[in-house]
Amino acid sequence: MKQQMLSTAWITCWSDIPVARV
After folding, report:
1. Tens digit of pLDDT for each residue in 1-22?
2. How far is CA 3 from CA 7, 10, 16, 21, 22, in A?
3. How far is the C-alpha of 5 from the C-alpha of 3, rounded, in Å?
4. pLDDT of residue 17
5. Rounded CA gap, 20 and 2, in Å?
């Protein structure tokens, strides 16, 4: 279940930076 860890890391990274996607 490495996908879950990747997802968490991804969200954490995105949380650190502002949402530039919107």
Report:
1. 577 777 887 777 776 666 655 5
2. 6, 10, 20, 22, 25
3. 5
4. 66
5. 26
| C-alpha–C-alpha distance, residues 1 and 7, integer Å | 11
| The pLDDT of residue 2 | 76
Full DSSP string of 1-21: -HHHHHHHHHHHHHHHS----
CA separation for the pair 10, 3 (Å, rounded): 10
- pTM here is 0.27
